[in-house]
Automatic annotation (TrEMBL):
The keyword Magnesium does not apply. This is ABC-2 type transport system ATP-binding protein. Keywords: ATP-binding, Nucleotide-binding, Transport. CDD domains: ABC_DR_subfamily_A. It comes from Nocardioides szechwanensis. Gene3D superfamilies: P-loop containing nucleotide triphosphate hydrolases. PANTHER family: ABC TRANSPORTER, ATP-BINDING PROTEIN.
C-alpha cells in the first residue's frame, strides 16, 4: 500500500510525524510543517487545475512532486510561490498564509519557475544583482560567484541570457532561487534538459538547503532523480495527491511499477 509514509524514511520522518526523541528519551512535540497545504483548489475558468490537494513538507526535508502532464504540479508550486492565488483551501508557507500574508510568504520562498523568469537582455550577474537588491541582501557577491562556478556559468556571467541554451537557463533559474538561502526552496522542473554537471550542482543546492534547515520542494518528471534528490515523494493525479511516501519506495524497478500503478 502506498497511501501512508512508513518509518523506513528514518528518524526525520519519525520526528516530523510523531515527535522528536531527545538524548534523555523524552519525546518533544512534532515540528510544524514549513509548507502546509489543506484542501487546495485552483480553478482557471472551467478548468480545475488543482482539485483538493493536501500536502505537508518539513524543515530539512526535500519533497518531490511527481505526476503526469497536467496533474497540477506547477500550479501547486505557483500557489506556494505566491504567483497564483488559491481558489479555495488554506496554504501556509513558513507559517504565513499566502492569501493574507502574501509578501511575508513570498519573502520566505526561493522559486525556480518551470518556464520563463529570465530577462533576455540581462546577464546572469545582472539577474543576481537585481534579485539581491530586491531582497536587500548585503553580502551577496561571494555566494553569487560561488553558485555561478558550481553551475559552470562563471564564464558567461556577463553575457546576455538571450543566447543561452535551455539547460543554461534552467541552471541560472536554480541559482536565482537559491541565492538568498530561502526557508522554502521551490524548484519546478530543475533537471529538465540539464547536463550531469548541472544535475550534480542542483543536488548540492538541495542538500545544502536541507542541511541549513530549509524545506525543499521539487517538481519533476524524472522519477529516479526525484528519488536521489528527495526524502519524500508525493504523487499527483488529476489535481489531487494520491500518495505520499518515503522516496525509497519509488526507487528501481519496483518503484517504477508502483509509480505506474498510481498513475493508471
Ligand atoms: N493559466 C492557466 N489557464 C488555464 N488552464 C491552466 C492554466 N495553468 C494550468 N492550467 C491547466 O491546469 C492543469 C494543470 O496544469 P499544471 O501545469 O499545473 O500541470 P503539471 O502537472 O505541472 O503539468 P506538466 O507536467 O505538463 O508541467 C492542466 O490541465 C493545465 O492545462
Amino acid at each position: 500500500m502506498l497511501t501512508r509514509p512508513k518509518l523506513s524514511g528514518g528518524s526525520t520522518l519519525f520526528a516530523v510525524s510523531f515527535g522528536r526523541v531527545g538524548k534523555d528519551g523524552v519525546v518533544s512535540p512534532p515540528l510544524p510543517p514549513m509548507v502546509d497545504v489543506r484542501g487546495l483548489h485552483v480553478r482557471f475558468g472551467e478548468v480545475e487545475a488543482v482539485a483538493g490537494i493536501d500536502l505537508q513538507a518539513y524543515a530539512g526535508q526535500a519533497t518531490a512532486l511527481l505526476g503526469r502532464n497536467g496533474a497540477g504540479k506547477s500550479t501547486t508550486m505557483r500557489v506556494l510561490a505566491g504567483v497564483v492565488p488559491p481558489s479555495a483551501g488554506t496554504v501556509l508557507v513558513a507559517g504565513h498564509d499566502v492569501r493574507t500574508e502574501t509578501l511575508r510568504a513570498k519573502q520566505a520562498v526561493g522559486y525556480c519557475p518551470d518556464v520563463g523568469g529570465l530577462v533576455p537582455r540581462a546577464t546572469p550577474w545582472e539577474h543576481l544583482q537585481l534579485s539581491a537588491r530586491l531582497r536587500r541582501m548585503d553580502d551577496w557577491e561571494t555566494p553569487a560567484r560561488d553558485l555561478l562556478e558550481r553551475f559552470e556559468l562563471g564564464d558567461v556571467a556577463h553575457r546576455v541570457t538571450a543566447g543561452f541554451s535551455h539547460g543554461m537557463g534552467r541552471r541560472l533559474s536554480v541559482i536565482l532561487a537559491a541565492l538568498h538561502a530561502p526557508d522554502v526552496l521551490l524548484l519546478d522542473e530543475p533537471f529538465d534538459g540539464v547536463d550531469p554537471i548541472g544535475v550534480e550542482a542542483t543536488f548540492d543546492v538541495i542538500s545544502d538547503a536541507r542541511a541549513r534547515g530549509a524545506c525543499v520542494l521539487v517538481s519533476t518528471h524524472l522519477r529516479e532523480l526525484a528519488v536521489q534528490a528527495c526524502t519524500t515523494v508525493s504523487v499527483l493525479r488529476g489535481g489531487s495527491a494520491v500518495a505520499t511516501v518515503p522516496s525509497g519506495e519509488m526507487a528501481g524497478e519496483e518503484g517504477a511499477r508502483a509509480y505506474r500503478g498510481l498513475l493508471d
